[in-house]
Each structure stands twice: as structure tokens, then as C-alpha cells.
Amino acid sequence: MKTNLKNLTIEELKQFCTGEGMQSYRALQIFRWIWKKDKSSFFDISTISREIREMLEEKAELPQLHKLEVLTSKDRTIKFLFGLPDGETVESVYIPTKKRKTVCISTQIGCPLNCTFCMTGRTGFIRNLSPWEIADQVRRVESIIGVRITNVVLMGMGEPLLNYENVLKAIKILNSDTGMNIGARKITLSTAGIVPGIQKLALEPLQIKLAISLNAATDEKREKLMPINKKYNLRRLFDGLDYYVSMKKKRITFEYVLIKGFNDFLKDAKELAAITEGIPCKINIIPFNSIDNKVFKRPNSKTIKKFVDFLYPIAQAVTLRESRGTDIEGACGQLRIRSKRTSHKSTS
Description:
alpha/beta, DNA polymerase, domain 1, 2 domains, 10-stranded mixed beta sheet, two-stranded parallel sheet, globular
């Protein structure tokens, strides 16, 4: 069985090289050609001998994600559907602003958490993505659009902390200055609140940012949106966040999806300010993207403004963040679900 070199960190690649009789510095050359120069064939690596290239061709492989569909929004957001070697698909989203060129990437195929407002959960959980399948989303998007990616957010399909080891390895690959060299502080991991994972992440030396998908400030409401709250309720979650902050000395981002008639009342805003008061944080208010959802709806503009205006003076930091790519099925899981439906129709 061939060794997938894209699944290896620099240190692991050094071990592979020395194990095959090469000097360890060859690992730096190979890693650079894979991740910085985006080469998918060993015969394209001009800094190693033909003998080494032939050996690598025999004993190793460099798989790639395959572009299946690209949708461009009027707001310049670009949605990608990539094909994986086993026939599964995964979504990524390019989100450009004046200051940042961000890619939102996925960490699992489907998701086991079944959050009621999220499209990804509708397809169930298939499997974890491997390190290269996570990191290669960034590599592929950058190559396709021809613009250097500055920021990465792990907020796509799946729960990153339920794929902990693969996610951390992918982050190390992206962060390496021999490869894509994306700064750790430019990488944000978003979790639904997997407390053991948060506590484990607190001990990692990487200085990535942490975001919490909160969406409600009481257990009663949060459990209706996010079944994981039954296992890790708000008290356990905030105990874990206290530990994280004590170890990292970093501010946390809370994401709050605003849903019409559910969590958009001024009482909700007051409870949100109160529960986050003791944690150094900022709060992102995200009006719900109600495409293809018959249960939840987006509040009207007046309600959104009223909620944010009420929250702003009583919370630490508040930002209204509009959904991007709403005209191209930009929310997590939408494009993949449509693709599966189309595939099913064409084969039935």
C-alpha cells in the first residue's frame, strides 16, 4: 500500500524520507513542492533526482480533491463542491473581503450532531475527513481562484473536535512556513461545544482562534436547536471555556444564529449578555439563512436591528454578520444535498 505523503506533517515526512534512505532535508523539498507549489506528480519535483522520483512514484502517492461544481455569488462568495477518492463529496466556501481572503472548510462528511437548523445534519454522518482532505480544500481553492488565502475557518460541514487528531494535523500542515504558511492566528476552529475537545485544545501550543456555536443562552432553548447540549450543557460548556481562557489567555468568539420567533427576543439578548459576561469574548450575530428550511425563518430587518442595538451596550463586543452566498446555496450542506438529489434522480 502506497504512503499518502499529503497526510504527513513535516516531521512525519522526514521520518518517511530517512526510512527510505534519503536525507531528511528532502522532506522539506517535497513538502514545499506539494503544498506551496501545488504539484500532484513526483515527476514535477525538479529539485530531486530522477531516481528518487521513481522511488516515490512506486512507494507513495499524492491524491487531490477533484472540482465537481463551482458557484459564484453576486457578493463574490464562491462555493465549491469537491469529489473525494471514495466517491463522497465535500463543500468549501471562499469568502473575500477587502482585508481578508478566507476559506471556510469542512472536517467531516456529514455531521453526527444533528443540529435542527443546520442543513449538513440532514444527510447524517458518513465519516471523518483525513488530514489531507481537510488541508487540500484550502490548496485547491487557492489554486482555482488564483488568489493567496489569508484566513481559514473550520466552520463547514462537520464538528472539528469530533475529528480532533486529523483536524490538528491538517492545521499544522496549513500553518507550516514550508507550505502554505497560514498563520495560526488566522485560523479559526468553530465547535458546537465538545467540552473534552475544548479542554484538550487548551493544551495545544498552536495559537489558533476558537469560536463557539452558541445560538441560545438557556439550556431549554439550546437543546431544541443543538442536541449536543444534553450531553454538554451550558454550565459544563462555560466551565470548559473558563479553563480554555485560563490556559490560552485568548478571547473567544460566540456565534449566535438569530431565528425568527425563537431566540430573537430582547429577553434572549439580555440572557446572552449575562451568560457571556465572565468570558473575554466577542459575539457574532448571524441572521438565519432560511433557504430550504420550512421550520426556522430569518427575522425581519427591524427585529434584527432591535436585537443588536439592545445587545450592543450590555455585551463586551457585538458584530452583525450577514450570511454570505445566500443566492448560491452558501450555507453548510446545501450544495452537497442538491448534488446528491440530482445524482439520485439521474440514476433512478
